[in-house]
């Protein structure tokens, strides 16, 4: 199967989304993972702390992002030599408001004694099960951007699940996908990996994504261990522990809007 080499092609000040950004709800709209990573890239480019680490990323998903050209901008909200807050926005032609917004705290890096973290309580990627999602409406879509290996659970069955991923493409054509970018491409899928409802009968789209990191992700393989809980009034939450090969690196949360299709 011939796949695009990247999620986005840079072109005259915009980023042209390829088919690898297509989400599961409508082939005209992107999965939120790729634009989340694109915004994280912009935040790190706008930051002023040399080699700083991004420790919290809070996304608001203000509208569906079309599969087409998008623009990203960033500004420093709170400058500092040790701590800074950066805001980034994603827009598209024809939209009357930003479609995604990110605020990210970044900090200086220094040598320090860290709290020991246990190794991932998951089988490593080589002992996990390869799987492809079967609920996407097009064969070339977001699920082809990463290699997925499930330690437990499944894309295609309800309930909690844990999976390792590695990139099969670049985020932006001509650039290697960094571990942080990879983490954001992957992490928005936590609520899909751990879905508890039938994709054909219910919508459970997330309106936000928050990622808190104790250290930067590293290495080729990153993982998530996710569970979704539904409340009695049409809302849900997805929580995931995030890993690299050395251990847990942080957690993510997503708020879900749930209704019948």
From TrEMBL:
<dbReference type="InterPro" id="IPR049449">
    <property type="entry name" value="TesB_ACOT8-like_N"/>
</dbReference>
<dbReference type="Pfam" id="PF13622">
    <property type="entry name" value="4HBT_3"/>
</dbReference>
<feature type="domain" description="Acyl-CoA thioesterase-like N-terminal HotDog">
    <location>
        <begin position="23"/>
        <end position="107"/>
    </location>
</feature>
<dbReference type="InterPro" id="IPR042171">
    <property type="entry name" value="Acyl-CoA_hotdog"/>
</dbReference>
<feature type="domain" description="Acyl-CoA thioesterase-like C-terminal">
    <location>
        <begin position="130"/>
        <end position="258"/>
    </location>
</feature>
<dbReference type="Pfam" id="PF20789">
    <property type="entry name" value="4HBT_3C"/>
</dbReference>
<dbReference type="InterPro" id="IPR049450">
    <property type="entry name" value="ACOT8-like_C"/>
</dbReference>
<dbReference type="InterPro" id="IPR029069">
    <property type="entry name" value="HotDog_dom_sf"/>
</dbReference>
<protein>
    <submittedName>
        <fullName>Thioesterase-like superfamily protein</fullName>
    </submittedName>
</protein>
């Amino acid at each position: 199967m011939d796949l695009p080499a990247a999620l986005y092609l840079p072109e005259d000040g915009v980023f042209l989304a390829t088919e690898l950004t297509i989400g599961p709800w409508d082939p005209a709209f992107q999965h939120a993972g790729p634009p989340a990573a694109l915004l994280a890239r912009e935040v790190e480019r706008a930051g002023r702390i040399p080699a700083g680490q991004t420790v919290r990323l809070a996304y608001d998903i203000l509208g569906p992002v079309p599969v087409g050209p998008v623009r990203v901008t960033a500004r420093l909200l709170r400058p500092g030599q040790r701590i800074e807050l950066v805001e980034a926005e994603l827009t598209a032609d024809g939209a009357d408001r930003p479609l995604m917004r990110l605020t990210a705290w970044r900090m200086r890096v220094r040598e320090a004694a860290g709290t020991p973290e246990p190794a991932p309580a998951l089988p490593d990627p080589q002992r996990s099960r390869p799987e492809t999602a079967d609920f996407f409406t097009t064969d070339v879509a977001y699920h082809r951007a990463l290699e997925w290996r499930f330690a437990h659970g499944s894309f295609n069955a309800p309930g909690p699940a844990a999976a390792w991923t590695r990139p099969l493409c670049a985020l932006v054509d001509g650039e290697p996908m960094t571990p942080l970018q990879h983490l954001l491409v992957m992490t928005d899928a936590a609520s899909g990996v751990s879905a508890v409802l039938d994709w054909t009968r219910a919508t459970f789209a997330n309106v936000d994504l928050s990622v808190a990191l104790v250290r930067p992700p590293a290495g080729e393989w990153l993982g998530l261990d996710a569970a979704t809980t539904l409340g009695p009034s049409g809302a849900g939450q997805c929580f995931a522990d995030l890993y690299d090969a050395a251990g847990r690196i942080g957690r993510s949360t997503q708020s879900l809007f749930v209704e019948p299709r």
